[in-house]
Amino acid sequence: MNEIIGLIGAMDEEIELLLSSMENKQTTVKAGVSYYTGDIFGKRAVLCKSGVGKVNAAVTTQILIGQFGVSKVLFTGVAGAVHPGLNIGDIVISQECIQHDMDATALGYARGVIPYQEVSVFKADSVLVKLAEKACIELEQHFVTGTVLSGDQFIASSSVVESLYKELNGACAEMEGAAVAQVCYMNAIPFVIIRSMSDKADGSAHVNYREFTVTASRRSHAILEYMLQAL
User: In whole angstroms, what is the distance from residue 78 CA to residue 180 CA?
Assistant: First the structure.
């Protein structure tokens, strides 16, 4: 039986291009989310829009795994750059994912550590990471492989960016990736998060975000197209 690949984007812009490439589409609605099953670049896939935030992302991912039986998950979208070497339009590939807003420091835990849980840093699948890196190299797309930081906050402060980089060694900040990563870890499903930088997470997002979201989404789409064809 052929495997089914789960594809997730957080916003319309992030799935429109993939949806236009999908053939033999069927739509199923679960928990208010539309799941599109079909063939894309020769692979069987289920595509959906998670919505914004960790809860939406977690629910969406669990449904993909539990009800649609996907065997790997690829999440694509935009993010704010945290690594000082990143510029708008650059790509971050997840080496690992951490929830930066998980804060039980008052109980003696380090920032990002989930209390009473053995694993708080969720490692992306090495095969998928290498494939994403190869796609970026082939497409001549500048990228960094590093830590994707997720939280239910839109980061718009240079001082916060600095703390995320220094304390958690973050490459980028967004609002879904670590939730997807944790659900995949709990289900033993390989994953990778691919984020295109739409802003510098420093308060200039009102200038950058909408303008670059479409461009960033196109870059992410090109990488996913390469990966799906190579899988």
Answer: 15
pLDDT digits (tens, 9 = 90+) for 27-38: 999 999 999 999
Write out the two tokens for 226.
């390469």
- The Cα–Cα gap between 202 and 80 comes to 8
From the candidates 14, 90, 174, 202, which is the catalytic residue? 14
Q: Which residues does 162 contact at the CB level (< 8 Å), separation at least 6?
A: none
Predicted confidence (pLDDT) at residue 206 exceeds the cutoff of 60: no
152 part of the active site: no
Backbone angles phi, psi at 35, to 5 degrees: -110, 125
At 198 the pLDDT is: 81
Catalytic residue among 96, 176, 199, 202: 199
DSSP at 159 = H
Q: In angstroms, rounded to a whole number, what is the distance separating the alpha carbons of residues 220 and 230?
A: 15
**d(C-alpha 67, C-alpha 72), whole Å:** 14
Residue 14 annotated in active site: yes
Find, among 8, 23, 94, 74, the residue nearest to 227 by Cα. Answer: 74
